[in-house]
Design brief:
The model has no long low-confidence stretch (mean pLDDT 95). The longest helix is centred in the middle third of the chain and has 37 residues. The protein is α+β, with helices and mostly antiparallel strands and 216 residues long. Strands 2-1-3-4 form a four-stranded mixed beta sheet, covered by helices on one side. It contains ten helices and four strands, in the order βαβαββαααααααα.
Length: 216
């Protein structure tokens, strides 16, 4: 079996989730880094017609969409298990992944993280303060609900690491690097959860590029 090839722009939280799940599984992979804007080019659009990242290729099988990739890795490399066996815990995992993909990323991080970090560093743009302000009420709703769902547990879906933790941690890590994110997470149980997640070897091994960290 050949290594998985992962395509994406370094610093992308979705790319980091895919790298982190491969690290947690101990699976061999190669990163094919894309330059900013390359994901909208003709070559990459043949791989991902919607021009998003990441995408993977494995033994001739091409796949895009982060959740699909995470679940594929879980099926191909079943140990350690990252989908809970209990139906309730698996449903909670799915719910939290949905919160990220439907609410937190598109309505919060896509504005706050982009205008505070990604745009200024990678594209040379200035922050759109109005867009950031507009995203904050949904940000507060997402953080409050995610904290409620986490409760007193070590991980988002229970007592063991799951795909929900791996999907959300890179998102919140970048969000926490912005002034708005730091303030919103301060003193919450999510802040402590993120500290635990960031100490995991898989997260350490997939840290964003230094330029993004310095900008944050």
């Amino acid at each position: 079996m050949t290594d998985i090839v992962v395509y994406g722009i370094p610093g992308s939280p979705f790319l980091r989730s895919v790298q982190a799940v491969l690290e947690e599984k101990g699976a061999a992979y190669r990163l094919r880094p894309l330059a900013p804007g390359e994901h909208k080019g003709e070559d990459y659009l043949r791989r991902h017609p919607f021009g998003r990242i990441p995408a993977i290729e494995h033994d001739g099988f091409a796949l895009y969409e982060t959740q699909a990739i995470l679940r594929y890795v879980e099926d191909v490399f079943p140990e350690p298990r990252l989908i809970p066996e209990a139906p309730e815990a698996a449903a909670r995992m799915n719910q939290i992944m949905g919160i990220n993909d439907w609410y937190f990323f598109p309505k919060v991080a896509a504005a706050v993280v982009f205008h505070r970090i990604i745009g200024p560093v990678l594209l040379g743009t200035s922050p759109d303060e109005a867009a950031i302000a507009e995203a904050l009420p949904m940000g507060r709703t997402c953080i409050a609900e995610l904290e409620r769902l986490l409760g007193d547990r070590q991980f988002l879906a229970g007592d063991a690491l799951s795909l929900a933790d791996i999907l959300l941690a890179p998102q919140l890590d970048l969000f926490a690097a912005t002034p708005e994110g730091r303030l919103m997470l301060a003193g919450t149980r999510l802040e402590a959860w993120l500290t635990r997640m960031n100490a995991r070897p898989a997260m350490v091994a997939t840290r964003p590029p230094e330029a993004l960290l310095k900008a944050a």
